[in-house]
Backbone:
């Protein structure tokens, strides 16, 4: 089990995000996940650079694993483009790159002006996109053209001409049991975000069921958790950082249909510290964070990526690299 760094491209410009990823690795973090959005959640966050450029720069400055957490190959980006981008990174940095896939949010995906469907269709589109990507990965390895004629996507006869010997891992993001089970049947692994332990335990069970139904062992699958938290030298600062920088983490309702950072900003005015309970741990005590991370590690996650929501990134990396990461066991 490893603990990596989450580069929040909503909060930090590309050069700073790369520098922070390198700094985190120097202090014990194992790898990096970077968010893929066209817009930040709220205007206060202030950034939203192109994830594929940033991942390449991170790979040049680090030695650990890396991938997008997560990209949506369904509206803003065609799955063929995502397959090509991922295969290129896999070829440039063998054994280090993985591909995180999600169904997307209107905040980033509606910008191309397409009809924004309800959740079941978005999920179906995601799984068909994964099928296209898997076909293209196989085409590059076998040196044979493939095509696709599905409900949502078409692909004329082609192949990936630049492809590593082994395809990047495909990890599907899931927050509910049905999607987790389908992910188990389809992908190499699961990505999810912090939630109460009992909910995540159930999610992992559904994913394992899907793996077994596909004839594969759950033990060989990669299980990834992205954990948002707020640490600062005082509890007051930690609360302030959460409310100011990451109020979207305290919104107890589906957010995938909201289209603008300005809409999120208005809703953020209603968020209170207690709204983060069970969703984002706020504490100045490193031991409290260590205990929480340990509970998730005990559930069976293979990789946990930490995102401290404040701007105090280097200070946080110093403290967690010294007092938290070495004490989490599996």
Residues:
């Amino acid at each position: 089990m490893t603990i990596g760094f989450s580069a929040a491209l909503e909060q930090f410009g590309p050069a700073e995000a790369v520098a922070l990823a390198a700094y985190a690795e120097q202090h014990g973090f194992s790898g990096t996940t970077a968010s893929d959005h066209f817009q930040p959640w709220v205007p206060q966050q202030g950034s939203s650079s192109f994830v594929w450029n940033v991942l390449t720069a991170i790979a040049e400055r680090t030695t650990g694993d890396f991938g997008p957490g997560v990209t949506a190959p369904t509206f803003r980006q065609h799955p063929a483009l995502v397959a090509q981008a991922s295969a290129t990174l896999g070829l440039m940095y063998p054994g280090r790159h993985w591909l995180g896939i999600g169904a997307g949010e209107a905040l980033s995906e509606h910008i191309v002006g397409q009809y924004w469907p309800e959740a079941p269709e978005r999920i179906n589109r995601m799984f068909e996109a994964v099928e296209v990507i898997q076909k293209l990965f196989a085409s590059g390895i076998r040196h044979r053209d493939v095509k696709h004629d599905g409900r949502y996507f078409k692909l004329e006869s082609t192949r990936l001409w630049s492809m590593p010997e082994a395809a990047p891992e495909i990890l599907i993001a899931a927050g509910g049991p049905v999607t987790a089970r389908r992910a188990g049947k389809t992908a190499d692994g699961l990505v999810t975000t912090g939630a109460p332990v009992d909910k995540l335990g159930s999610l992992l069970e559904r994913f394992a069921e899907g793996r077994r139904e596909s004839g594969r062992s759950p033990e060989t699958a990669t299980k990834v958790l992205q954990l948002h938290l707020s640490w600062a030298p005082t509890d007051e600062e930690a609360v302030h950082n959460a409310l100011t920088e990451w109020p979207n983490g305290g919104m107890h309702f589906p957010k995938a249909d909201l289209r603008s950072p300005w809409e999120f900003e208005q809703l953020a005015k209603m968020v209170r510290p207690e709204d983060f309970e069970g969703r984002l741990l706020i504490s100045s005590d490193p031991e409290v964070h260590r205990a929480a991370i340990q509970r998730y590690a005990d559930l069976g996650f293979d990789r946990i990526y930490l995102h401290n929501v404040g701007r105090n990134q280097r200070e946080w990396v110093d403290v967690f690299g010294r007092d938290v990461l070495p004490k989490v066991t599996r």
Remarks:
- The CA atoms of residues 31 and 64 lie 4 Å apart.
- The mean pLDDT is 97.
- The first helix runs from residue 14 to 26.
- The chain is about 40% helix and 15% strand.
